[in-house]
Amino acid sequence: MILSNTIQSVFLSATPMNSSAPAMQIVDDSFRLTLIISILILLVIVGILVALVIRSDRRAGVTPIKSAKSSWLLQTIVTGVLVILMVILCATGLKGYAKLVTSPQHAYDVYVTAQDSSWIFEHRNGKIQDDGQLYIPANQPVRLTLTSRDMTYSLSLPAFRIKQDVLPARETSLWFEASPGQYQLNNVEYSGENCIGMNAIVTAYEGEAFVEALDSVAYWLDAYTNDELYKAGLRLFTGNCLECHSLDGSSKIGPSFRETFSLWGKARPLEGGGEIIVDEEYIRRSLLSPQVEVVKGYKDQEMTNFTGQLRDREIVALIDFIRRLDEVVDEEGNPLEEIAQTQE
Ligand code: HEC
Predict the structure, then answer these.
(1) Do 195 and 238 belong to one domain?
(2) Mutate to test the pocket of ligand 1, among 245, 257, 277 (most ligand atoms within 8 A of CB)
(3) Could you tell me the pTM of the whole model?
């Protein structure tokens, strides 16, 4: 009973209805093919073993047969058959791989970042989902572009038979197409204790329902009006810049933002001679091409390039934050009371 159920599930209905991933059919087919080949090889080997045991019977009264001579023909046939099987398996695998890596141009893009054993999904419109949920449009190709901020992870979508390594400082991608419904997304790389629970539910919505679902996703920065963005800058600073920049005037790996603030609208001497006026554009350039204008005295230090890591509104928040620093923190770099409350 169990056996027949297993055989049925392996050979007949292992794929969820209607959903498709580029390689799904091929993965299933090669799996079945490998299984069939393994069973055949097992039968052949066991058959030969049994035959040899019978033929090598050495009880009294039985004349043992002479050991067989090697046969070129037999060896060639066996090797030939195995090589052909290998080529077939390799070819199906390659076909699936080729489909997997060439994603359709009109795919819906989601940027996936793995960090601290959790998934962060960023949609094209800037909405971020980091609570173990991912909303996607149904019946349309969806492309996930993956990167990690710390360790190596591996993203798996078992319903679509796809799995892809998520690597630090490198982008990988995969794509699939889902019918409406819910699917499991797992991390299948053991990268530390907490990564075991690194799962998410992918929900595919049809048409308008997807737009509505995405609208319901809140992004914390949306809660700030444009005039208040400078307050939001503190949180972005703590998350991204604190390592190298201080707010109290002491220089760390990079210059203190108190210094940058006090130089607003004034000239800043640069490495290699020349100077630059500290303004919005200068801060923006510092973030997006930090190696171009290097502050005098910081030749040997390197600043992170934030291209693709910060969204435009976040950059504006950081610029406003530096420009209006004295409205956010005191001389020691501690948040003013009013700001401290908005950071909750
Ligand atoms: C890995 C260290 C590092 C991180 C992280 C970092 N910076 Fe820097 N930053 C530097 C260094 C070093 C310099 C000086 C060299 C240069 O100008 O490129 C610098 C210079 C700057 C300057 C020019 C300052 C001036 O007074 O002229 C700005 C503006 C700046 N960083 C903004 C940021 C912001 C905003 C963040 C966070 C989103 C950030 N940096 C994160 C290292 C860093």
Answers:
(1) no
(2) 245
(3) 0.55
